[in-house]
Design brief:
There is one protein chain. The protein has 235 residues and is mainly alpha-helical. Helices cover 77% and strands 3% of the residues. The chain has a two-stranded antiparallel sheet with strand order 1-2. Helix 5 packs across helix 8.
Length: 235
């Protein structure tokens, strides 16, 4: 812990380090099982905040140059961190929720329904209104893509200064576009590791116990690297 030699290339992602650091960490299997345990408690929501809090701590450790999984301590702090990050993402999704509600309301107003075959029919068709709905649906889709692209930058901002920093729109966008290739690679690795997590389902419960926490640990490591690389853009 505390070894800054893990970041010899601060201007690029170390993918090998992200995928390998888990197995170099002391007690890595037990730390995986603890994440699984808190994930199971997510059925009552509380567990999710502990999970997020621990993943945040992984990113912070990587940002500092540390090379192992952090301990599962200071659970109160982890819960608060996870809760605040959840609030940050909820606030970022407000425009999408509003626009999605508007699309749903307009669709209901013209009585549109979709059959099992995928055919859409409207009991009260209105050409202009349908055009507006289609336009808003495209905007909504674009906003979803934009939010997905901004996730690493929002996460990095939270590491930098908590909830307030995660809501600084200009700083988030500066991080996201600072090194577009790095942002794209982090997102691709997110998709790849999410697929890896899903492979645990194929191996039934035992596989999921391993692939689920491992994927999130790798993602958190990459977010920590992303934060370190883009710190210069946030100031």
């Amino acid at each position: 812990m505390g070894d800054t030699a893990s970041a010899p290339y601060p201007d690029r992602l170390d993918i090998d380090e992200a995928f390998g650091f888990v197995f170099r960490s002391k007690g890595w299997f037990g730390k995986m099982l603890l994440l699984d345990l808190f994930a199971l408690l997510s059925v009552v929501l509380v567990g999710a905040f502990f999970c997020y809090g621990y993943l945040i701590e992984i990113s912070r450790a990587v940002r500092r140059g540390e090379r192992e999984l952090p301990p599962w301590n200071q659970l109160g702090k982890k819960f608060v961190d996870g809760l605040l990050l959840g609030i940050a993402f909820l606030i970022w999704t407000i425009p999408l929720l509003i626009l999605g509600g508007l699309v749903a309301g307009l669709t209901a107003a013209i009585g549109c329904t979709t059959s099992e075959s995928g055919e859409t029919t409207c009991s009260n068709p209105n050409g202009l209104l349908i055009g507006v709905i289609v336009l808003l649906a495209f905007v909504l889709f674009a906003l979803y893509i934009l939010l997905f692209v901004l996730i690493p930058a929002i996460w990095a901002q939270f590491l930098d200064g908590g909830l307030g920093a995660a809501l600084k729109v200009a700083a988030v966008f500066r991080r996201a576009v600072f090194k577009p290739g790095i942002t794209l690679l982090v997102l691709l690795m997110y998709l790849a590791t999410s697929f890896l997590a899903g492979l645990g389902v194929v191996a039934i419960f035992i596989g999921l116990l391993f692939t689920f926490p491992y994927a999130f640990f790798v993602q958190s490591h990459l977010y920590g690297q992303f934060a370190r690389i883009t710190d210069a853009a946030a100031s």
